[in-house]
Specification:
The complex is a heterodimer of chains A (258) and B (431). With 258 residues, chain A is of the alpha/beta class. Chain A has nine helices and twelve strands. In chain A, 43% of the residues are buried. Chain B is of the alpha/beta class. Chain B has a ten-stranded mixed sheet, covered by helices on one side. A nine-stranded mixed sheet of chain B has the order 3-4-6-8-10-12-14-16-18. Classes of the chains: A alpha/beta (258), B alpha/beta (431).
Chain lengths: 258, 431
C-alpha cells in the first residue's frame, strides 16, 4: 500500500484567531490505524488545531497545508469534510432546541450516504442501528427524542458526541477534550466508544489536557503543544511523564529557548 | 379619524336591520358602539398603542359586510377540523350548523351566538362586554356588527372532556366581525382552540371575552393562518379570579396585516402563561400587543414571544406588565426573542413594566439576532449543508413552541403545517 496517501498530513500550519497567531508551524503526520494524543497547557493551540481541521469560521489559516487522504482539506467546506469522513467531537456540543436528536442523527447519516452515492437509510433499519449504538453508550432511548443536547448534562453531551461518531463511522476522528467534565464512569463509556471504532481503516487525533483518558485509550503517539508548536513528540510514556512532572518544564524549556 | 358618512351608511343599515330581531339591551350596546365608531373610526398611528401598526389600508378598503357565507369545499373543511374536538364552524362570520356539532349536555353550554340569544340571553346580558377594558374602533366595530360567534359556559367543577375548536373560515373580501364569550365557573377546566383560515382577502375583526372564576383552568390557542391578502384584528380580553390559571399560545402565520391584542386581569394568586410566535415572511406585518395587569397579590405571569422576520416582513411586539398598588409578591417575567433574517425585515419590540408595588419580582428580556453560528457549524460539521442547516435551525425555532402544545391533535396539525413549509429539505416528523 505504498502508493496510498497517508490519512492526515499537516505541514507547517499557521493559524490566527481574530488576527492573533495561535498555531505557529505545526507538522504532524497521522497514519491509518493510529491514535495520536495532543497534550499541552491551556492556550497552546490544541483546540485551535481541532477547529481548523473541521473548518470552523473565524480560524484563519495564514500559512501551511493540510492533506487528508491526499486531498487539500483546507479547500473543503465544513460539510464536505464531514462527508469525506472527518469528524470533530466538540469540546462544547451545541444545544439546538426544537430539533430532535434522532432527526439530526438521521439527517447527518443521510448526508454522508448521499455523498457516497448510497441510498437514504430505511427508517426501520435506522432505528435498529441507532438503538445498537445507544446501548453501547449506555444511554436511554429517550435521548433520541429529546432536542439536540438541550438540557443534557456535560457527560450526556459528550456521550452524544461519541454516539454520533459511532453512527457516522468517520475515517478521521478529531476529539476535542472529549474527557473534560466527565466522571470516571462516563469516561470509561466514552473510552469504550472510541476503542470500538479503533481500526486499521481510521485514525484519531485526541486533544486532551490530562493523562486520565489515555489510561483507557492508549495512544500510539503523544505530541506536546506549547505556544502553537509541537515541542515534543514521543510514545505513550511521554503522557505519563507529563502527568508526573506537569507542564512547567515545557514552559521553562520555552523560556530558555527564547 | 371620523369616517365619511357614505362609508358608514352600509354599517348603519346593517345594524338597524339586525336590531329588529334583537333585545333592547343589545340594541343599545350596538347603537352606542356604532356611534363611537362613527366618531373615531379605526385607530390612528398617532395613538401610542398603534404607533407601529398603521391600519389605514383597512380603513381605505371600506370592507362591506359579508351578505352571506361563501361556498366552501366540505372535504377541505374536514381537514381543518381537528380530530377529537368539538367544533363550531363560522364561514365568513356565519354559523355553519351542518359543519358544527356544538351541543353539549348538562353542565356545559356550547352554542352559536344566535342560539345563545334565544336560549341563554341572561348569560349574555350579564357578561357581554364585562371583560373588555379598552376602547377603540375595532372593538366598537365588532360590538356594533358582530353576528356569529360562540357562547361557552362551564358549570362549577366541570371538566371538558375534549377541546373545543372554533373554526373561522374567511372566503371573501368582506368585513367579518365575530364574537365569543367564554365563561368558566369555579373549578371548571377547558381547552379552546380558535383557528383562522381561508382564502379570502377580507377583514376579520374578532373579539373573544373570557371570564374565569376561582380555581379554573383554561388553555386557549389561537392559530392565525389567513390568506396573504387578508387583514386580521383579534382582541382577547380576560378576567381571572383568584387561583385561576390561563394558558394562551398563539401562532401568527398568515394574513397581510394582523394585530392581536390581549388584555388580561390577574386576580389573587392566579397564573397566566402567554406564548406566541410571529412568522413574518413575505410582506406580512404581524403585531402582538399584550397587557397583563397584576391587580391582586401573589399572581404569577409568564410571557414569551418568539419572532421570525424574513423577506420584507415586519413584527411588532408590545408587552406591557402593570403591577398595581397592593399587588405584592407579584412574579412576572416576559421575554421576546427575535430572529431578524433579512435586511428588509423589521422588528419592533417594546416591553414595558409599570410597577406600583414594592415587593415584586419582575423581569423582561428582548433579544434581536441572527441564527447562531455555533449551531450552524455544529450541523455542518455533521455533513449537513449550510442552507439545510439554516432551515433546520428555523424549523427548531418554530418547533420548540409547537412541542409545548399539549393538545395532541393540534400539535400534530401544527407539525404537518411546519413540515409543509420545510418541504424542500424533507423534514419528516421524527418525534
Amino acid at each position: 500500500m505504498s502508493n496510498q496517501p497517508s490519512l492526515l498530513k499537516i505541514e507547517n500550519l499557521h493559524a490566527s484567531v481574530e488576527n492573533k497567531p495561535i498555531l505557529k508551524g505545526i507538522n504532524l503526520a497521522l497514519d491509518y490505524g493510529q491514535i495520536h494524543a495532543i497534550m499541552g497547557p491551556n492556550g497552546s493551540g490544541k483546540s485551535t488545531l481541532a477547529n481548523v481541521l473541521a473548518g470552523r469560521e473565524g480560524y484563519e489559516v495564514t500559512e501551511g497545508r493540510v492533506w487528508y487522504q491526499g486531498k487539500d482539506l483546507l479547500a473543503m467546506a465544513p460539510e464536505e469534510r464531514a462527508r469525506e469522513g472527518v469528524f470533530l467531537a466538540f469540546q462544547y456540543p451545541v444545544e439546538i432546541p426544537g430539533v430532535s436528536n434522532i432527526y439530526f442523527l438521521k439527517a447527518a447519516l443521510n448526508a454522508i450516504r448521499k455523498h457516497r452515492g448510497e441510498p437514504e437509510v430505511d427508517a426501520m433499519d435506522f432505528i435498529q442501528l441507532v438503538k445498537e449504538k445507544i446501548q453501547l453508550m449506555e444511554m436511554e432511548d429517550q435521548f433520541l427524542y429529546r432536542a439536540i443536547n438541550e438540557g443534557f448534562s456535560g457527560g450526556e453531551k459528550k456521550r452524544n458526541e461519541i454516539l454520533q461518531m459511532l453512527l457516522l463511522e468517520p475515517t478521521l476522528c478529531v476529539l476535542d477534550e472529549i474527557d473534560s467534565g466527565l466522571d470516571i464512569d462516563a469516561l470509561k463509556i466514552v473510552a469504550k466508544g472510541i476503542n470500538t471504532l479503533r481500526s486499521p481503516e481510521r485514525g484519531f487525533l485526541m486533544v486532551t489536557h490530562y493523562q486520565r483518558l489515555l489510561d483507557y485509550v492508549e495512544p500510539d503517539m503523544v505530541h506536546v503543544f506549547a505556544d502553537g508548536r509541537i515541542v515534543k513528540s514521543g510514545g505513550p510514556q511521554l503522557a505519563k511523564e507529563l502527568e508526573a512532572k506537569g507542564y512547567g518544564w515545557i514552559e521553562q524549556a520555552l523560556e530558555e529557548h527564547a | 379619524m371620523t369616517l365619511p358618512a357614505e362609508a358608514l351608511k352600509p354599517y348603519q343599515a346593517a345594524v338597524e336591520t339586525r336590531l329588529a330581531n334583537e333585545p333592547d339591551w343589545l340594541a343599545d350596546l350596538r347603537r352606542q358602539a356604532l356611534e363611537r365608531f362613527a366618531n373615531k373610526g379605526f385607530p390612528s398611528p398617532r395613538e401610542e398603542e398603534w404607533k407601529y401598526t398603521n391600519v389605514s389600508p383597512i380603513e381605505r378598503k371600506r370592507f362591506p359586510l359579508a351578505p352571506a357565507p361563501g361556498v366552501v369545499d366540505e372535504q377541505w373543511i374536514e381537514q381543518q377540523r381537528l380530530p377529537g374536538c368539538w367544533h363550531l364552524v363560522l364561514i365568513d362570520g356565519f354559523f355553519a350548523p351542518h359543519l358544527s356539532h356544538p351541543a353539549l349536555a348538562g353542565d356545559v353550554v356550547f352554542c352559536d351566538m344566535g342560539s345563545a340569544l334565544r336560549r341563554h340571553e341572561a348569560l349574555l346580558t350579564q357578561n357581554l362586554g364585562q371583560a373588555v377594558d379598552v376602547e377603540h374602533g375595532f372593538i366598537d366595530f365588532n360590538t356594533a356588527l358582530f353576528q356569529g360567534g360562540a357562547l361557552i359556559r362551564l358549570s362549577p367543577g366541570t371538566r371538558l372532556e375534549h377541546p373545543i375548536q372554533l373554526l373561522h373560515v374567511q372566503t371573501q373580501a368582506a368585513a367579518i366581525p365575530t364574537r365569543h364569550l367564554i365563561l368558566l365557573e369555579a373549578g371548571a377546566e377547558a381547552a379552546v382552540i380558535e383557528s383562522y383560515v381561508g382564502e379570502g382577502a377580507g377583514l376579520t375583526a374578532h373579539v373573544t371575552e373570557i371570564l374565569l372564576a376561582e380555581n379554573t383552568r383554561l388553555q386557549h390557542f389561537k392559530i392565525q393562518e389567513e390568506a396573504r391578502r387578508a387583514f386580521h384584528f383579534g382582541g382577547l380580553y380576560v378576567k381571572q379570579a383568584a387561583g385561576s390559571r390561563f394558558e394562551q399560545t398563539q401562532f401568527a402565520l398568515g394574513s397581510l396585516l394582523a394585530r392581536s391584542e390581549i388584555h388580561l386581569h390577574l386576580g389573587e394568586a392566579s397564573q397566566c402563561q402567554l406564548d406566541g410566535l410571529h412568522w413574518a415572511n413575505g410582506r406580512r406585518h404581524l403585531d402582538s400587543h399584550t397587557r397583563i395587569l397584576h391587580e391582586k397579590p401573589g399572581a404569577v405571569s409568564r410571557e414569551s414571544y418568539k419572532v421570525l422576520a424574513e423577506d420584507r416582513g415586519r413584527s411588532v411586539f408590545q408587552g406591557r406588565i402593570v403591577v398595581q398598588p397592593g399587588a405584592q409578591k407579584t412574579d412576572a417575567a416576559m421575554s421576546n426573542r427575535n430572529l431578524l433574517l433579512s435586511d428588509d425585515a423589521e422588528v419592533d419590540s417594546k416591553p414595558q413594566l409599570e410597577i406600583y408595588a414594592d415587593d415584586v419580582k419582575c423581569a423582561h428580556g428582548v433579544t434581536v439576532g441572527q441564527l447562531d453560528d455555533n449551531a450552524l457549524f455544529y450541523l455542518q460539521a455533521r455533513g449537513i449543508d449550510a442552507d439545510s442547516a439554516r432551515q433546520l435551525l428555523l424549523y427548531g425555532f418554530v418547533n420548540e413552541l409547537i412541542e409545548t402544545v399539549t393538545v395532541a391533535p393540534l400539535r400534530q396539525y401544527l407539525h404537518r403545517q411546519l413540515d409543509n413549509r420545510f418541504d424542500a429539505i424533507d423534514l419528516e416528523s421524527t418525534s
